[in-house]
Amino acid sequence: MGGVNKRKRGRKAKSDPPSTADIPTSTSPHIDDVVFSVSNVELIDPPPSSTSHRPRRGRPRKIPIPISILSENSNPENGKTIKGVNGVAASLISSEDTTMLNARVVPEMDAVVKVFSVHTEPNYSLPWQRKRQYSSSSSGFVIKGRRVLTNAHSIEHYTQVKLKKRGSDTKYVATVLAIGTECDIALLTVDGDEFWEGVSPVEFGDLPVLQDAVTVVGYPIGGDTISVTSGVVSRIEILSYVHGSTELLGLQIDAAINSGNSGGPAFSDKGNCVGIAFQSLKHEDVENIGYVIPTPVIVHFIRDYEKNGAYAGFPILGVEWQKMENPDLRLSMGMKPDQKGVRIRRIDPTAPESMMLMPSDVILSFDGVDIANDGTVPFRHGERIGFSYLVSQKYSGDSAAVKVLRRNSEILNFNLKLATQMRLIPAHNKGKPPSYYIIAGFVFTTVSVPYLRSEYGKDYEYEAPVKLLDKLLHEFRQSPDEQIVVVSQVLVADINIGYEEIVNTQVLAFNGATVKNLKSLASMVEKCNDEFLKFDLEYQQVVVLQTKTAKSATSDILTTHCIPSAMSEDLRM
């Protein structure tokens, strides 16, 4: 036993710690944890310390690494190694070495602000009232010209908007300059100089490519401080913008976008803004699918505002089209083997295109770009995109060259003037209160998507009457001022006995005259001197009231239900 070494009691001796154990690596989730900074460039994997340390018991001692370690006589352009505090060596980056190092530009996070909004939403079911006000918070960021960008849905129906800078305890009242409902972007500003002190505006970058790294910065739920999530661009295509009920170019990313992230910028690895976070896909079968408004859409919105002094909107080609992928269909349309395009099904009667184009015309090209049989055009290398992207690049009032093939194999060239679309059932009232008119307890109003959502909930696409949904999805306006007028409800009174169950039924005519919109209906009723008021409703229903009795009973009904007026302000004009 004397030749056997006895094991010492106590803790087992620790081996020498690795030299890089105390140096943060690229796995750190915090952008603010800057390891070494030269001209706003962060080294992801800095060189380890060359100084040796004697092993000691307990936790290894951390070596502090200063943010700024350049001496007075150091020259960053030499690309040489210099010595910093505590003997820590750091390599300066020369212009030749930047492509060899895993470097990343730190985005301008101080330009990201928190947006506080107070909303007062109209009550579309009781249009003379407003709902209880509520508050929300979202994100935004500073751009050139002392302006701030955020999402339109973040300030919808706002009564007050405030902004707070990163690290500040002061909220500044903002002024809304423009709201782009279709593209879900809003433009704000703040009066005075205090808010803008020390804030550098973000710079916009080019449209990224697939697998490009993106960093989403904002103020989502779960905390009060700024939050950073990272991911890559996984898809670029025409997306459905939920708030605007439109289809525009969008980016799909795998970075988490949560409530409160809306309006925050998405930065590239070069530190430039490549988009605005605005919506995400929530489903049990998917994870981390977020959507970003890309720079082409953002720039279009800003230039539209600067050009017109207000937001005019994205123009569209006022047609519905059909794919021409079937060879027999192409042969019947007189198309040659080398010709491709899409067939026009219907044309919006109120659109400028209705004066030149015809149903069954085949659109061969738009602005000199050939359209494929599936309706796509070349986008970038290895990518195709819907030709509506070309239309969305235009501004309202711009002209576009369109080549079509007519049924007699005649090729025609048109110079079309583009305009924004006027929907029969609008997706938004654009901040205006709903219109209404009341006579003898009958509440007349116009149909819009917010009205359907108020009446039937978020599943209105399944719960609303089939005829209203058909008009929402397929009907065009026959004139620019056409509206769908309905009897929203009947406020019960002696004069309307038997009519109480009429709900959300369209009004087709009054005393034999077609009802074009709510203002024309209110005008006809107010000027009526006939003995009876006769309303022709859908499904062959008829409502008849004595004129004098109906008008005299209206004031009592308004008093009973505490309604301030028999018609909205816009109908009095």
Automatic annotation (TrEMBL):
Compositionally biased region (Basic residues): 1-12, 53-62
Record GO terms (molecular function): serine-type endopeptidase activity
InterPro entries in the record: DEGP_PDZ (IPR041517), DEGP_PDZ_sf (IPR046449), PDZ_sf (IPR036034), Peptidase_S1_PA (IPR009003), Peptidase_S1_PA_chymotrypsin (IPR043504), Peptidase_S1C (IPR001940)
Domain Protease Do-like PDZ, first and last residues per copy: 425-570
Keyword entries, A-Z: Hydrolase, Protease, Serine protease
Residues in the signal sequence: none
Chain positions covered by the region annotation Disordered: 1-78
Top-rank lineage group of the source organism: Eukaryota
Pfam family for this entry, one: PDZ_3
One Gene Ontology biological process: proteolysis
Similarity comment: Belongs to the peptidase S1C family.
UniProt name for this protein: Protease Do-like 9
Organism: Capsicum annuum
